[in-house]
């Protein structure tokens, strides 16, 4: 391990331990256990079912983009990639590092490096744009006065404005993936270069150009799938809260989920452990949610990724077993068909 990587690993371990220690200082373990023991399991089961739906929608969104890129990666393979990423994400710091796992999996299933990188980049861009829109909209709705829990005119106007921005997001995504118009110029300027690095960059730019040339409806379908996935995740978080008899407004849960989601993308701690709980305590405190309740809520939320990770472990084990079987089969075939240069007998016949 390189010294710099070793220092980063030690720093992340220290940050994880410090975050967990802070959480336990604010919320004693006994109080957290009592909250979890009193959880209403019908709501927990509903939340877990939403987590299953979330993985299916995420795989469908990724497969849709792969289809637009003309990559031959089917839905079930994409679901395997999603689950495998969830498994390795337990041990990697942050969602950004988890993206590296997704990249490797794309390559294993036949995608070029440029196509895999573009798919990751566009998916991250869609996730960031849609979660940013949801955070801003939900937070502003939270600030506006409500009338007996009903939607007031200012809130309705804000929702209408958010929908208008949603319709404009395809154009913004086009600008993002084309590096604000620089990609075509860079391609023309360095097209004659022979360097491997330059050629790899040009290949990635070519893939980005392919995405930029998608129709408005194609890009909007990606954004709509991204919003759907986020709202399913928010609904799951809301159900976990109901399991603990915690009932903040749905708009409150939406923007808090968005902040926690963005924090999870940073390589701060392992699997966002400790950081997620501390941020939940801080963000939910103004809404009358105690530290033990917020921590129990966060732990329940972790059961969804944990279940996905266990499924990913099964997928990875089956994948490695099939590779071993193929390897043993290839060895057996070679032993039966490759003849000894002196005797003319196959290796299998020589052993007999």
Give a verbal description of the structure.
This protein is mostly helical. It is 79% helix and 0% strand. It is built from 14 helices and no strands. The chain has helices spanning 3-26, 29-37, 41-68, 75-89, 94-108, 113-143, 153-177, 182-189, 196-212, 216-243, 250-264, 275-284, 291-337, 347-351. Helix 2 (29-37) crosses helix 13 and helix 7 (153-177) packs across helix 10. The longest helix has 47 residues, at 291-337.
Oligomer: single chain
What's the SSE pattern? HHHHHHHHHHHHHH
Strand content: under 5%
* Biggest sheet descriptor: none
Distance between the termini: 47 Å
- Average pLDDT rating: 78
User: In which range does the helix fraction lie?
Assistant: over 70%
Record field, number of beta strands: 0
Class of secondary structure makeup: mainly alpha
* Total number of helices: 14
Are there runs of 5+ residues with pLDDT below 50, and where?
327-335
Q: What is the radius of gyration computed over CA atoms, rounded to a whole number of angstroms?
A: 25 Å
Name the shape in a single word.
globular
List keywords for this structure.
mainly alpha; 352 residues; 79% helix
In short:
With 352 residues, the protein is mainly alpha-helical.
